[in-house]
Structures are given as structure tokens and as C-alpha cells.
């Protein structure tokens, strides 16, 4: 019989040149038929009896059970919740082997069977966020890359339109597994999506680099226009205004929607401090969006222009927000309605139209309450309190500020709670309730300290002339240390001089 | 526990330091670091170590939750909270479940139920059922013996008729979840395992650190411990240092391979065992996953040779 060491040496020797030693070792633990089944199990991310049956329809129920039992014993197979998964290192090696041209047909056939297994039932929601729906999309790409990619783009865009950015990132990660087999067109879109994800994650430098990579390629006009506009937006946020403008100019040539280009140019001018130029661009954007009846984009541009003019020309801003409000559907655009109401209230406050401002804040407040938006409610209460105060509605102002402070506390926003408490102290002072001024001022100081906002705490201390015990102790300690130090220094000098 | 899992636990070698720290975390009341961070490259045995730790929790009958990310099970922050809720016990998270239904279920499919009211509870008034239909679950509310259970409708898309931003929605849900998790942990220790965290999206990873673990840092969660497994060493800023026990998993040593060979029950004499261990060590560089695979492949080769 062969000695154990030589058996092991032979085994290792056979693997020494392999670049997939982990999966090779795994397959050596199985007979040929089981090894083939295990290779198939590397196509999905997880597997169970249903998946195995789909991958190898010739297996009987008993054989499926036996196979799973055999696989469970392998060190490379892990239990994940209610199913099994191959160790990442092994799965990646085996999956990469499936993507080579000579195995693509077998891979597509197996993927097609998995597509059928995971196909959403007619009664399932259209959301693509469940593991089985993600699996369906993943295997659709494997079954037919072109058709799968079309579906991928539709799903990705739908999730994006709903603002589900985390889900978009998860989808792009799935697509990454097919990177070695993506054609030039798919690869360009894939890079574009990666750039969007980087942008969503506020990784602007990475996003800019990826958009550049897309734009260097031969791509469709649609993709070029989108990449140019997104790239301009990223460059603007990086403070690179001239390159951002250059991107917009290129976008014109690529057939990007003119109203979107003017909107971006408006944002660039706004961020660069060129107010008149920004105004002109936003106005042009509104005009062009109206010409093509794009309600969503008209609202976007109206809101941008209104926000720009809020401090400079509040009356004009109010009229723009009013127009904006008229275009929104109160049932389905509720978040935007609440934002516009808030802006309208602020614009009216700036032109001292107090009753109108109060009305809009209260409408916004109703939406926040109905939406159980604690933080939003607290912010709106803090704003409306100012309007109550100016109208000398003391009780309403007091009530709004007390509620605001309490809601900010419950939302763990201690800084904003401190702001509300500071306003309470101011309100007490104005309404002549001196006894309560110090109480609220101290509460505000305490909140600011808890939030780590010492500068604000000091500002409140100064504003209300509060004697801060902790600060007094610190000062006393400082002077004692200083005097002690000077005394020691003098003593040392005297001793040195006398010797 | 499955026999295979038992077998794996029985063959577990090394990682005494990590297990000692973990048991310290479970047993000592004044353990200062409630978060254990285990990281190491692929194949270093993070998941096996976590499996062992989960087992320790079971033995002590602590509450536990396991969240494991894969590319298709890419839990976002809502899914993480749902998984922890279901593992710890959904009964402790009634308000959270209610809130999540509120944020996702369109109004026509939702029934408001005030739990804990002294008055009569009415659910689904005015609704009509088809002839012969029975009411067990009406729009997410289970009416069961012993009380009303709010059932998660498991919807994911936010309602568009609410005026709340995604960020505020996240904060609101997280606050509610943390409050209820804290209450659930007041009666028994809860350990939460988060494995393969590097596969979570950036947004989810930020939520895990800033909101979920942030609640521990801000003293809003007591008696809840976290074990986090990942491939990359995270950048930990100074605010977190006192709360985190960081363990990097390194390769096994030669003696651990000898121990593994013994536990595997291969019929080798001491001399052969040492030589085999030496050879496997040289081939695998002590990578635990590769060691286990090489030993199994070797065992298989021996069995087939004996057969011949």
C-alpha cells in the first residue's frame, strides 16, 4: 500500500500549477457525478432541494436528498438560513469557469431552468427586492445576456426612479459577476451605473473618474447625453465649474434634453455665485420644460429658481412656489408638496405676510403629522413659532416651541432641541417672563453641550448672561494653575540666584 | 442542530483567544466592549467562528439574531431590522412592525390598530368578505387567541402619499426599532451576528455603523452585543475604540493542523501525522479553509486507494 505522505504529495503535486486550488480540492472530494452537480450549484448564490432539482432535472427526490446530504459534509458548503451556499472563494472560481466560451451553452441552459424556478408569480409584487426576484434577474442575465440586460436596465431604472439607491447598488453588484462576458455596449452601461452608485454614495471623485471612462468609449447618443449631464453635476459639486460647463456644452451636441442642460447650467452658476446668470438659466429651463409639457421638470426648475430668489426677491419666490404647488398632485407628490409649502411659508415670512406664512406652515405641519415624521414636525414647529411670535400669539408660540424641543429630543437631535430651547428663552424674555428665561437658557446650554456643540453653548451663555458653573470652575482652575506656576518659577529663580 | 453542524463544531480548532473574549462578553456584566469585530481574508474561518459563537449563545439561552449577506440576500437597513426582529421575537417589536406597515402599505390595504387600548378594538369594520371566507389575517393584523398580533406585510416600497423623506423615514424606523430592541434586551442578553458585512451596500454599511452600532455608542442600547464578521479591516475612529474588541483572524499553525487531523480521525501514526501536517501547512500556508479542504481531499484519496 502507498504511504500516506506520498499519497498527499501526489495530490498536492497535481494541484501545484492550478489557479483554482480551492475548488480543485473540493471537487477531489467527490465522485464525477457529484462533482458535476456541485459545479452546477456554483451558478446560483445559494441552493436547496428545489434549486438542485432545477439544475439537474434527472435527479429523483431521493437522489436530491442524498446529494444535499453529501454536500453538507463538505468544508466548502455552509448553511445560510434555510439553504446552503458554497464558500465564496470556491463559488467565484467555479462561476468563472462557467463563463468560458466552451461552457456557455451548458451554462445558459442551466440558467434558463433557474429563471423558470425564480420567475415571479403573477400575484407577486413588481418589486425586485426579494432574494428570489434578484435571483431571477441574475439568472436571466446568464440565460440570455442581451434580454437579461434589457430587463436589468428596466429594473435598475425603476428602482432609481423610486429613490431606492441601495437596491440599485445591490443590482450593480450582481451585474459585476458577468463583467468578463459583457459586450462593449453593456460594459459602458455597467460603468455608467457604477458611476451613478458612486455618486449616490457621495464618492464624487470616483464617480467623476467612472463617467470619464464611459465618455472615452464609443457609446450611443442616449448614454453619452446622460453621462455628460451626470458628469457635469458631479464636477459642479466638486467645485470644478468650468469643466462642468464644458460638459454641458458637449451635452447640447449629444442631444441631451435642453431644459435639463439649462437647469444644470443654472445650478453651476448658482454654486459659482453668479445669481443673475443662474436666474436666466433657470428661467430658460422652465420655459423649455413647459414647451414639452414635462410637469416634473417644470416643478424642478421652478423650485430651483424659487429657492435662489428666496432671500433676494421673496415676493417673486412666493409666486414661483405657488405655481409649483399648483402643478403638484397632493395625493402622490406629498413629500414635494410639504417641501414647497415650507418654502412658501418662508417666502411669505420674508415679505412679512404673516397670516399667509402661518397658513402654509400649518398645512405643512399637517402633512408631517399625518406622515409620522417626527423630525419634520419638530422643524416646522420651530419655524412656525417665529411667525406666531411676530404676531404676538404668545401661547401658540410657546406651545409650538415646547413641542418642537420635545420632538427633537425624541428624535435624538440634541442640537436642534437646543435651538428650540434657546428660542423658548428668547420668547420668555420678550413676553416678560424673566423667571423662566434662565431655565430655558440653561436647558439649551445643556443640550448644546450634550451635542458636543460648545461654541453654541458659549454663545447662549453670553446671550443670556448665564453664569456657567462648569465654566467658572474651569476658569478658577486655570488661574490657580497659572498662579501656582508663576510662584514656583519665582521660587526657582530666587533659589538659583541665591546659589 | 444538524449532525453536520455538530461534526463541524467538534472539529473546530484554534481561535481560543477569540472564543475566550466572546465568552467574557457573554458572561461578565461589566464587559467594556460590546462590539466584537472579526476580520480576515477569505477562507480564514470567520463564518465557522461565528457559527461556534452562535452555538455558545444557544447553550446559554441568550437572545440572538443572525444576519448574513450574500449577493442575492443583500439586506438593506429595513431588512436587517426585520431579520433581527424575527430572530429576537417579533412580539417585542409591535410598534416597529406597525410603523413599517404604515410607511409601506397603501392606505386602502391598511388598518390602524391601537394596541393596549382599554376600549374595544375594531379592525376591518365595514369590510366585506366573500361568502365562506374566514378572518384569520386581515391586512396584516392577525387575530389570534390571546391577543392581536401585528403582522409585517413585508412590503418594501415607501408610500408616495406621505410627506416624509427617505432619510427621516430611516431615522424614525431605526429609533422605534432601537427602543423596542432595548426593551427586549432588558430581560435577557441579546447577541447580534452580522456576517459578510462587506457585501452590504455602502448605504447599509453606513447605517449599521452610524445608526445601529451608534445606538450602542450613545448608550441607547444596553445588554445588546454585536459580533461583526468581514473581510476588510474597517477604519475605526477614536470614538469607537473603547467599545470595540478587534480580532484579526490569521492562518493556523502547524500544531492546529495536527489537532485537526486527530479530530478528523484519520488513521495515521504520530510520525505520519507530523509529516502530513507539515506538508499540508506548506501547501496551504495555514489558510483554515484550504487546510480543511486538503485534509478532506486527502482522506478521500486514501479511502479510494484502500478500496482498490
Q: Overview of this structure, please?
A:
The complex is a heterodimer of chains A (499) and B (308). With 499 residues, chain A is an all-alpha fold. Chain A contains 26 helices and 2 strands. In chain A, a hairpin with a 2-residue loop joins strand 1 and strand 2 (83-86). The radius of gyration of chain A is 33 Å and the shape is extended. The termini of chain A are far apart. The model of chain A has no long low-confidence stretch (mean pLDDT 93). Chain B has 308 residues and is α/β, with parallel strands linked by helices. Chain B has 2 domains: 3-115 and 135-248, Rossmann fold (3-Layer(aba) Sandwich); 254-307. Chain B has helices at 3-10, 16-27, 46-59, 77-88, 94-104, 166-185, 202-217, 254-264, 270-284, 288-307, and strands at 35-39, 63-68, 137-138, 141-144, 147-150, 190-195, 224-230, 244-248. The model of chain B is unreliable at 116-121 and 126-140 (pLDDT under 50). At the A-B interface, helix 1, helix 2, strand 1, helix 8 and helix 10 of A face helix 1, helix 5, helix 6, helix 7 and helix 9 of B.
Which labels suit this protein?
heterodimer; A: 499 residues; mainly alpha; 2 strands; extended; B: Rossmann fold; five-stranded parallel sheet; three-stranded antiparallel sheet; 10 helices; 13% strand; elongated
Amino acid at each position: 500500500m502507498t504511504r500516506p505522505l506520498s499519497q498527499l504529495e501526489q495530490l498536492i503535486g497535481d494541484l501545484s500549477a492550478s489557479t483554482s486550488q480551492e475548488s480543485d480540492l473540493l471537487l477531489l472530494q467527490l465522485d464525477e457525478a457529484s462533482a458535476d452537480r456541485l459545479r452546477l450549484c456554483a451558478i446560483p448564490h445559494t441552493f436547496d432541494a428545489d434549486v438542485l432539482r432545477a439544475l439537474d432535472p434527472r435527479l429523483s427526490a431521493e437522489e436530491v436528498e442524498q446529494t444535499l446530504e453529501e454536500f453538507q459534509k463538505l468544508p466548502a458548503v455552509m448553511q445560510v438560513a434555510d439553504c446552503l451556499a458554497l464558500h465564496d472563494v470556491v463559488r467565484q472560481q467555479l462561476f468563472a469557469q462557467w463563463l468560458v466560451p466552451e461552457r456557455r451553452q451548458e451554462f445558459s441552459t442551466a440558467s434558463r431552468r433557474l429563471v423558470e424556478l425564480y420567475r415571479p408569480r403573477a400575484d407577486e409584487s413588481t418589486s425586485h427586492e426579494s432574494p428570489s426576484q434578484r435571483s431571477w434577474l441574475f439568472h436571466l442575465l446568464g440565460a440570455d445576456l442581451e434580454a437579461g440586460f434589457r430587463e436589468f436596465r428596466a429594473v435598475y431604472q425603476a428602482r432609481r426612479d423610486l429613490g431606492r439607491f441601495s437596491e440599485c447598488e445591490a443590482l450593480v453588484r450582481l451585474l459585476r459577476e458577468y463583467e468578463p462576458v459583457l459586450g462593449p455596449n453593456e460594459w459602458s452601461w455597467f460603468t455608467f451605473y457604477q458611476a451613478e452608485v458612486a455618486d449616490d454614495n457621495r464618492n464624487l471623485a470616483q464617480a467623476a473618474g467612472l463617467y470619464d471612462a464611459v465618455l472615452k468609449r464609443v457609446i450611443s447618443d442616449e448614454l453619452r447625453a446622460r453621462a455628460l449631464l451626470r458628469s457635469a453635476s458631479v464636477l459642479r459639486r466638486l467645485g470644478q465649474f468650468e469643466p462642468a460647463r464644458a460638459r454641458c456644452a458637449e451635452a447640447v451636441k449629444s442631444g441631451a434634453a435642453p431644459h435639463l442642460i439649462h437647469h444644470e447650467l443654472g445650478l453651476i452658476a448658482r454654486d459659482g455665485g453668479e445669481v443673475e446668470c443662474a436666474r436666466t438659466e433657470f428661467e430658460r429651463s422652465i420655459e423649455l420644460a413647459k414647451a414639452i409639457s414635462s410637469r416634473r421638470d417644470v416643478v424642478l426648475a421652478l423650485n430651483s429658481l424659487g429657492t435662489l430668489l428666496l432671500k433676494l426677491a421673496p415676493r417673486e419666490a412666493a409666486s414661483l412656489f405657488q405655481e409649483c404647488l399648483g402643478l403638484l398632485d397632493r395625493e402622490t407628490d406629498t413629500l414635494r408638496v410639504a417641501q414647497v409649502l415650507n418654502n412658501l411659508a418662508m417666502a411669505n415670512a420674508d415679505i412679512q405676510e404673516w397670516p399667509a406664512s402661518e397658513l402654509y406652515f400649518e398645512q405643512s405641519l399637517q402633512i408631517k403629522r399625518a406622515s409620522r415624521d417626527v423630525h419634520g414636525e419638530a422643524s416646522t414647529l420651530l419655524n412656525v413659532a417665529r411667525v406666531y411670535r411676530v404676531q404676538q400669539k404668545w401661547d401658540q408660540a410657546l406651545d409650538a416651541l415646547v413641542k418642537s424641543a420635545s420632538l427633537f429630543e425624541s428624535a435624538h437631535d440634541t442640537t436642534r432641541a437646543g435651538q428650540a430651547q434657546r428660542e423658548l428663552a428668547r420668547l420668555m424674555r420678550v413676553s416678560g417672563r424673566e423667571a423662566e428665561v434662565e431655565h430655558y437658557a440653561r436647558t439649551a446650554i445643556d443640550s448644546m453641550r450634550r451635542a458636543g456643540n460648545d461654541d453654541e453653548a458659549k454663545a447662549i451663555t453670553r446671550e443670556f448672561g448665564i453664569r456657567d458653573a462648569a465654566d467658572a470652575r474651569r476658569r478658577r482652575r486655570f488661574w490657580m494653575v497659572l498662579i501656582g506656576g508663576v510662584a514656583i518659577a519665582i521660587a526657582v529663580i530666587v533659589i538659583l540666584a541665591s546659589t | 442542530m444538524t449532525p453536520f453542524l455538530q461534526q463541524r463544531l467538534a472539529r473546530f480548532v484554534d481561535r481560543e483567544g477569540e472564543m475566550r473574549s466572546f465568552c467574557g462578553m457573554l458572561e461578565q456584566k461589566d464587559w467594556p466592549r460590546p462590539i466584537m469585530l472579526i476580520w480576515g481574508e477569505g477562507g480564514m474561518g470567520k463564518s465557522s467562528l461565528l457559527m461556534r459563537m452562535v452555538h455558545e449563545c444557544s447553550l446559554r439561552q441568550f437572545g440572538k439574531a443572525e444576519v448574513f449577506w450574500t449577493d442575492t440576500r443583500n439586506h438593506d437597513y429595513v431588512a436587517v431590522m426585520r431579520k433581527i426582529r424575527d430572530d429576537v421575537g417579533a412580539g417585542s417589536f409591535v410598534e416597529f412592525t406597525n410603523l413599517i406597515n404604515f410607511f409601506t402599505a397603501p392606505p386602502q390595504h391598511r388598518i390602524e390598530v391601537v394596541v393596549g387600548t382599554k376600549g374595544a378594538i375594531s379592525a376591518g369594520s365595514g369590510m366585506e368578505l366573500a361568502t365562506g371566507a374566514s378572518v384569520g389575517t386581515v391586512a396584516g393584523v392577525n387575530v389570534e387567541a390571546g391577543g392581536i398580533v401585528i403582522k409585517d406585510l413585508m412590503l418594501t416600497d415607501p408610500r408616495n402619499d406621505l410627506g416624509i423623506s427617505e432619510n427621516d423615514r430611516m431615522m424614525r424606523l431605526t429609533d422605534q426599532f432601537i427602543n423596542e430592541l432595548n426593551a427586549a434586551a432588558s430581560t435577557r442578553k441579546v447577541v447580534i451576528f452580522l456576517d459578510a458585512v462587506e457585501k452590504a451596500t455602502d448605504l447599509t454599511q453606513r447605517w449599521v455603523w452610524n445608526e445601529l452600532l451608534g445606538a450602542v455608542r450613545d448608550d441607547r442600547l444596553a445588554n445588546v452585543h454585536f459580533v461583526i464578521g468581514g473581510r476588510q479591516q474597517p477604519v475605526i475612529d477614536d470614538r469607537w475604540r473603547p467599545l470595540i474588541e478587534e480580532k484579526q483572524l490569521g492562518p493556523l499553525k502547524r500544531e492546529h493542523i495536527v489537532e485537526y487531523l486527530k479530530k478528523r480521525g484519520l488513521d495515521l501514526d504520530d510520525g505520519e501525522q507530523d509529516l502530513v501536517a507539515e506538508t499540508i501547512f506548506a501547501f496551504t500556508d495555514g489558510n483554515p479553509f484550504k487546510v480543511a479542504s486538503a485534509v478532506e481531499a486527502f482522506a478521500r484519496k486514501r479511502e479510494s486507494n484502500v478500496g482498490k
